[in-house]
């Protein structure tokens, strides 16, 4: 699958302000398409799910005819937990350890915006230029690569989910040893 052929989708649950939603901005700019939850039961591709056990890796590129992010509030997600919905033929994947550059969750591990999540997924499966294109639409977008560049380079070199998990464990241990506030630098 060529990078420009991968379709990006946003499922918007409207739990926060549309002006604060990076997913809304992406579909307004034509970089992603908005879909409803019901369509997920009929689709094939990758569903970015923070609760999935398997991390996304380059090996998932063959599944990536589409990448879907569920655009919802982290506050609501933490309160309500995982959605109990069937996603049909979608392959659930979580993103490995990365830190947010968006102003709402700046430097918080794993709390990426929808745009950051889609860009990270594209980078990990080898579509770095397309990832840069997505984040170029946000003032803070370049900072995502500054904070996570080293992490993304390591994840991009991993051949499968097992190598991603080993790299992720080592990187998280390193960040913890260095102390808070240094996430992603290096």
TrEMBL record:
GO terms for molecular function: rRNA small subunit aminocarboxypropyltransferase activity. GO terms for biological process: rRNA processing. Residues 46-171 form the 16S/18S rRNA aminocarboxypropyltransferase Tsr3 C-terminal domain. Signal peptide: none annotated. Keywords: Cytoplasm, Ribosome biogenesis, rRNA processing, S-adenosyl-L-methionine, Transferase. It comes from the Archaea. PANTHER family: 18S RRNA AMINOCARBOXYPROPYLTRANSFERASE, RIBOSOME BIOGENESIS PROTEIN TSR3 HOMOLOG. This is 16S rRNA aminocarboxypropyltransferase.
């Amino acid at each position: 699958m060529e990078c420009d052929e991968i379709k990006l989708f946003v499922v918007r649950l409207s739990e926060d302000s549309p002006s604060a939603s990076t997913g809304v901005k992406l579909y307004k700019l034509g970089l992603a398409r908005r879909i409803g939850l019901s369509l997920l039961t009929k689709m094939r591709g990758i569903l970015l799910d923070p609760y999935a056990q398997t991390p996304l890796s380059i090996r998932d590129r063959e599944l990536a005819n589409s990448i879907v992010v569920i655009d919802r509030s982290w506050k609501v997600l933490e309160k309500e937990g995982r959605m109990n919905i069937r996603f049909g033929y979608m392959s659930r994947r979580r993103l490995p350890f990365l830190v947010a550059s968006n102003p709402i969750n700046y430097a918080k591990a794993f709390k990426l915006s929808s745009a950051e999540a889609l860009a990270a997924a594209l980078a990990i499966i080898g579509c770095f230029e397309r990832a840069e294109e997505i984040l170029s639409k946000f003032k803070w977008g370049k900072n995502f690569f500054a904070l996570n560049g080293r992490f993304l380079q390591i994840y991009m070199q991993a051949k499968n989910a097992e190598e991603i998990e080993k790299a992720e464990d080592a990187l998280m241990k390193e960040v913890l040893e260095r102390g808070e506030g240094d996430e992603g630098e290096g």
